[in-house]
């Protein structure tokens, strides 16, 4: 299959390098732009190498309240985003694990009915149910709060489905061996099911964290106070600052900062994820 | 260590399928019982009902004299070894063995002592800190047996434990299980579809057919005096030769001996047929040389299916050769039209007398 000829090696590398450049160029541009003053980016030619304002720009972003972003420092926005993303991720994983456990291992009336109900909610993302959800949150007096940001996004049919499929692949004999070893339902869940699901949890953590971090519409609707703004909202606000020129150097700086936590999560979880893949049996 | 009693045990699955019915069985303390039968005969279901993994539809399971129908598997004080090992993949060998004891709140030093003992018996000492995936199939099954031993249960249950292993390992582990039983003198209940395992391991075999017990007895009883055609055909490879009692071939084999009243089938074991002067004439068909002995397919006059003979490996025969065979004395068995053995307990039908 793999041909070892210089020409084809050269070609494959050329194509790959082109792809990498294509993907990385915008990030590079953002990084470069965040180190220049406001004027440099408004006139041609756009700089392709770092300027001398980098340190200054990032200090402004992290500590100072920028009027363009509603006077909140980006540091606070990132903290808000982090709380929301972690809340959504951990909440989703916890709830879907328990739901999948119930559906796979317990016999109760309308078991399959409940499964299909959960499954059908796959077709109802936040955007579709946004009005009724907003109504519920308003009545529960959860506007402008962290739980208002997190709770409505916690239910997850995808994760439940994924865990269900995984639990179904665990051999019945393992469950039976645990029963003979005197492990009750809680013990079985804690001692056997959770450790076995580690890989899946890591994979889901990556996906769900990025999902939570990138939430835009729901935080926009449910928060009106600046102290709860998330970083994605902040970028958007800065870019649409009405009559004034957009402050590109700050916007790009915020974008770069907003990239960091998801990248860190991917890097941290990837190790576990790959380890789990290698360790998993057969 | 305890007795296990099954009284009128039955299992009906949802949808009315009767997997097991009317099973009465008393297993003595320290006995090695093998449940054997074709797939779908209900042998595994019985084992699972003893273990408590399957609800009992009717009848009663008693372990050590106490009815356990309503007890959870973990409360029955039994241990089970599964076909696909069922080891906890994320736990080390040591953790696998200690898990059940921890759940019983056994003191730490007692756990350590029992694991050391089990590891010594099963030669697992070097593997205690490995994960199951780093072990071979035979080692995994040893760990599963170790997990059972450390529990020091009233009864050991084995559900086709050797079926996933290759032939050589199977023979090795079979010997180990037998040795283990000698050493522990505990009650062993063992399910298999392999009659060789059943014959070589059991104190008593319980042969199952379609959810019912066909025959209970020592391996040699089942082999020598099968209670029915089913037993005769199931036990022994190759199985017992069966001929319609009225056929000329059967008459030639019986050599004028009087068959019992109502005999419809005549059976004879392959090794009971020997070359003789008078008896059944036939032509040698296929010859399967197995080394120590050879299986000879004999195409007899007046009988469609070939009879199988087990002759000594040094016998000189060629395909197409005409030979005459006769059963050794006392080896003919007769069965009635329903397949039940005639004279199941009395003396076997005598040939030539």
Automatic annotation (TrEMBL), chain A:
The record ties this protein, via Gene3D superfamilies, to: MetI-like (1.10.3720.10)
The main place the protein resides is membrane
User: Where's the ABC transmembrane type-1 domain?
Assistant: 78-269
Membrane topology annotation: Multi-pass membrane protein
Methyltransferase: present as a keyword of the record? no
Family annotation (SUPFAM superfamilies) = MetI-like
Can you tell which superkingdom this protein's organism belongs to? Bacteria
Q: Which UniProt keywords apply?
A: Cell inner membrane, Cell membrane, Membrane, Transmembrane, Transmembrane helix, Transport
A GO BP term, please? transmembrane transport
GO cellular component terms attached to this protein's record = plasma membrane
Subcellular location, in the record's words? Cell inner membrane; Cell membrane
Q: Where do the TM regions start and end?
A: 7-31, 82-106, 113-134, 146-167, 188-213, 247-267
Q: What does this protein do?
A: Part of the ABC transporter complex UgpBAEC involved in sn-glycerol-3-phosphate (G3P) import. Probably responsible for the translocation of the substrate across the membrane.
Family note: Belongs to the binding-protein-dependent transport system permease family.
Subunit architecture: The complex is composed of two ATP-binding proteins (UgpC), two transmembrane proteins (UgpA and UgpE) and a solute-binding protein (UgpB).
- The protein depicted here goes by the name sn-glycerol-3-phosphate transport system permease protein UgpE
Q: Which organism is it from?
A: Rhodosalinus halophilus
Lineage summary: Bacteria, Pseudomonadati, Pseudomonadota, Alphaproteobacteria, Rhodobacterales
From TrEMBL, chain B:
Q: Which UniProt keywords apply?
A: ATP-binding, Cell inner membrane, Cell membrane, Membrane, Nucleotide-binding, Sugar transport, Translocase, Transport
Q: PROSITE patterns in the record, alphabetically?
A: ABC_TRANSPORTER_1, ABC_TRANSPORTER_2
**The ABC transporter domain covers which part of the protein?**
4-235
**Per the record, GO CC terms?**
ATP-binding cassette (ABC) transporter complex, substrate-binding subunit-containing
What gene is it encoded by? ugpC
| Name of the protein this chain belongs to | sn-glycerol-3-phosphate ABC transporter ATP-binding protein UgpC
Q: Which family does it belong to?
A: Belongs to the ABC transporter superfamily.
Pfam families given in the database record:
ABC_tran, TOBE_2
| Claim: Membrane is one of the keywords in the record | yes
Q: Does the keyword Cell membrane apply?
A: yes
Q: Name one GO biological process term.
A: carbohydrate transport
What PANTHER family does the database record attribute to this sequence?
A: MALTODEXTRIN IMPORT ATP-BINDING PROTEIN MSMX (PTHR43875), SN-GLYCEROL-3-PHOSPHATE IMPORT ATP-BINDING PROTEIN UGPC (PTHR43875:SF12)
Database matches in InterPro entries: AAA+_ATPase, ABC_transporter-like_ATP-bd, ABC_transporter-like_CS, ABC_transpr_MalK-like, ABC_transpr_MalK/UgpC-like, Mo/tungstate-bd_C_term_dom, NA-bd_OB-fold, P-loop_NTPase
Give the species.
Rhodosalinus halophilus
Record's superkingdom? Bacteria
> GO molecular function: any one?
ATP binding
């Amino acid at each position: 299959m793999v041909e070892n000829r210089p020409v084809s090696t050269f070609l494959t590398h050329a194509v790959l390098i082109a792809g990498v450049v294509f993907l990385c160029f915008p990030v590079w541009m953002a990084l470069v732009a965040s180190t220049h003053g406001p004027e440099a980016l408004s006139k041609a030619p756009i700089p392709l190498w770092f300027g001398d304002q980098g340190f200054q720009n990032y200090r402004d972003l992290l500590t100072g309240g920028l009027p363009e972003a509603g006077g909140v420092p980006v540091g606070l926005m990132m903290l808000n985003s982090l709380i929301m993303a972690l809340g959504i991720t951990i909440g989703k994983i916890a709830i879907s694990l328990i739901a999948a456990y119930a559906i796979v291992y317990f016999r109760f009336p309308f078991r399959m009915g409940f499964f299909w109900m959960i499954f059908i909610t796959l077709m109802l993302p936040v955007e579709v149910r946004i009005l009724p959800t907003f109504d519920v949150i308003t009545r529960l007096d959860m506007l402008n709060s962290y739980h208002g940001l997190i709770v409505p996004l916690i239910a997850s049919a995808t994760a439940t489905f994924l865990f269900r499929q995984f639990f179904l692949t665990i051999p019945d004999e393992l469950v039976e061996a645990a029963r003979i070893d005197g492990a009750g339902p809680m013990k079985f869940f804690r001692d056997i099911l959770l450790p076995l699901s580690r890989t899946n949890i890591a994979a889901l953590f990556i996906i769900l964290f990025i999902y939570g971090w990138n939430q835009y519409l729901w935080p926009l609707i449910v928060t009106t106070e600046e102290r709860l703004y998330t970083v994605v909202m902040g970028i958007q606000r800065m870019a649409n600052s009405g009559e004034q020129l957009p402050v590109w150097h700050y916007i790009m700086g915020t974008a770069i900062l907003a990239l960091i936590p998801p990248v860190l999560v991917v890097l941290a979880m990837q190790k576990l994820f790959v380890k789990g893949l290698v360790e998993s049996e057969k | 260590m305890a007795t296990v009693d099954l009284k009128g045990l039955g299992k009906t699955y949802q949808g009315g399928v009767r997997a097991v019915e009317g099973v009465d069985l008393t297993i003595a303390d320290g006995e090695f019982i093998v449940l054997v039968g074709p797939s779908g005969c209900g042998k595994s279901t019985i084992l699972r009902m003893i273990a408590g993994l399957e609800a009992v539809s009717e009848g009663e399971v008693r372990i050590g004299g106490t009815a356990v129908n309503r007890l959870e598997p973990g409360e029955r004080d039994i241990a089970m070894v599964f076909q696909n090992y069922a080891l906890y993949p994320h736990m080390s060998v040591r953790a696998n063995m200690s898990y059940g004891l921890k759940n019983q709140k056994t003191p730490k030093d007692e756990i350590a002592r029992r694991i050391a003992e089990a590891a010594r018996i099963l030669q697992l000492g070097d593997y205690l800190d490995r994960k199951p995936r780093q072990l071979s199939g035979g080692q995994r099954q040893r760990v599963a047996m170790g997990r059972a031993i450390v529990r020091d249960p009233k009864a050991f249950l084995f559900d086709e434990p050797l079926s996933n292993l290759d032939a050589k390992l199977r023979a090795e582990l079979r010997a180990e299980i037998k040795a283990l039983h000698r050493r522990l003198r505990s009650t062993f209940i063992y399910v298999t579809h392999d009659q060789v395992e059943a014959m070589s391991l059991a104190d008593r075999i319980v042969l199952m057919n379609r959810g019912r017990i066909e025959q209970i007895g020592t391996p040699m009883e089942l082999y020598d005096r099968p209670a029915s055609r089913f037993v005769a055909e199931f036990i022994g490879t190759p199985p017992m030769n069966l001929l319609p009692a009225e056929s000329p071939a059967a008459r030639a084999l019986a050599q004028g001996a009087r068959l019992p009243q109502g005999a419809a089938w005549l059976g004879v074991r392959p090794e009971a047929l020997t070359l003789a002067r008078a008896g059944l004439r036939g032509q040698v068909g296929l010859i399967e040389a197995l080394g120590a002995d050879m299986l000879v397919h004999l195409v007899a006059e007046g009988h469609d299916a070939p009879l199988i003979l087990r002759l000594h490996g040094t016998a000189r025969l060629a395909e197409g050769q005409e030979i005459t065979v006769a059963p050794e004395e006392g080896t003919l068995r007769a069965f009635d039209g329903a397949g039940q053995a005639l004279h199941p307990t009395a003396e076997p039908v005598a040939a030539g007398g």
